[in-house]
Structures
1.
Amino acid sequence: MSQPDDEPELVGFVPIERKPAKRRRIMRVFVILAIAALVVPGVITTISVASRTAERTCAIYVAHYRPDAVGSSARFEIFAPGGPGWQCYWLDSEEHASYFAPLGLIPTTPRAPEPADTTQS
């Protein structure tokens, strides 16, 4: 039976001493902070843009389809009538919010209504 020291690939191999536990812990914390510094600004920007887009889209839709409304409100909700995502509410004269429409997980700019076909046959 051969011993691990008898292997020709290991001739001259000198094991490297492991880094102290404190140094490894500091490196791990540094790596975690670096990854967070890369990810967090993107998440904050995405949430900010989605929030502004939802507010503007909701305001345009409410102004077009509910001219009697005094305002609008967009909220991100997990359990909502329109499913998870941004939800649009219209406000009446007493500032009570009523559900208007779902805007989806990623709100988009509003689309103009399709023009009615005025051609006659």
2.
Amino acid sequence: MQLTGTRTWVPVARAATFTGLVGMCGVGIVTALIVLAGGRVDEVVSGWVQGAFGTPRNAIETVAYTTPLVLIALGAVPALRAGVVVIGAEGQMIVGAIAAAAVVIPWGTTLGWLAVPLGALLGAVGGSTWSLLPALPQARWGAPEILTALLANYLAAEILTGLLRTTLRDPGAATAQSHRLPAAAMIPALPGRFSTAVLLVLVVLAMAMWWYRSRAARLVDIYAQRPWLAARAGVVSSRTVLSATCASGAAAGLAGWIQLAGVEGVLHGGISGGIGFTGLVVAILGRGRPILTVLAGLGVASLTTGAAGVELATGVPSAIGQISQAVLLVTASLAIVVVRRQTYASGATDV
């Protein structure tokens, strides 16, 4: 069975033109907000570059923030291409961090060098398992995944709060947090203070690039647009939903472990820090393409890390970074909807 339709390049070209126009509108909105806030665009751009990449420390901070965003986004690609909306990464990050902390904090020193890979495994398993809460009702009864995922996020946050008040609490800390991870359980740093977690993202990127060109990816694309045709090719709906969602959850759980063992060093109530939702923005901007997803992650991360430089250079509030992210999400979502409608209508599937 042929898995891709005949390409009709005129609708695709029109869709690409529309994407460019929508992107320009997004930039125009952000520019107008900067002017209304009393800033000059050239000064804002200069401050952003300085804040995000101007010094080695700033560049490392940007890459460090990019790492979990890209990891979550790459994990979400199969689910998004299957038409499954995955917004449970916040809860999956929390559960992944809890699973890793529960083992490596008390036994990390005893485990020695095994503590780091074991923490990564526990994080992935925890996030993948938690992703089943919205995935199973959707696969079995068609329950709305958005509602169940949001409820799972809320439940994970409440579980973390309860554990930090009881089992995992450090009684000597002034705030609700766990004991610090032992040194053996912390993710080691590379020369230049880059985290070894960057290497993990490179491995996941290589796997994503292989999957992107595989027959499985084509079948997922067909399932999202024409389930009846995918069924004739042997695709089982429930299996597709569960496997794509579990992959997304595993990536989010790994991101939670990275925040715990590579950034914070302790488990606390803000361990996810909104990274799960921001990672979804990166996944949408990346449009399912691995390299584009990495570039989108770097760009979105720089909006946050560069915001302080913008405020210092121009006086424009640093909240402009979060506002820019929101505008990017809205414009990218609008563009993707129109592009998919036009290109799939023409028979193309590689969008």
3.
Amino acid sequence: MRLNGPLDKIFFRFIVLVIILTADLLSASEIENKKLTFYISSSLAVSNPQESGDEIAAFCEAGGGYYTRKSDYGVSLRYPHSCKDMMEKMIRKSGIVLSWNVSTQDAGTEYNVLVNQLKSREKLLSEYMRLIESSGFSGTLSLERELTSLVTEMESLKGRIRKMEHDFAYIYLDLDFSSEDNPEPEKKESSFPWINRIDFYDFAGSGYYDE
């Protein structure tokens, strides 16, 4: 391969660098670090849904967590693993636990891939800038577009990594309340008389809530 000028040399070194970084990425992806996300789906029988929701949400916040949903029908919480036992004890004291289902997902492989992709692009950007400065080659519109695209991709990777790290650090709990105080579904008259006579809502065991 014959190089005719500084620009050709830049892109030749650029291609070599891509090959090296790709090989590093493939070898690093073989190393798995087990990282788990925890999701708990639960239902709780309580006497006062509003009071229970406020108390559970406040307890969660005091332990460094937060809630994403709070109503008479339940709460959705995110809290650190260090509060796991205390949160479970608090919830069990607030009412009768009807269900408590825990599911986990190992996202270590996906996380490692994203981290390695970010590292490779950071090296690529650093080397790219060094080559440009050492060659004295002034920026062009196409070059600026390439750099902008690379930086945008890096920011996207950082965002996904931060999101996953947050999911690893916090347990997600979706807690539904069951109580006699919860309003019953409003029954609507049907246009079919025979359905009204048999009380279709009780027959089908369904209804709906007005938002």
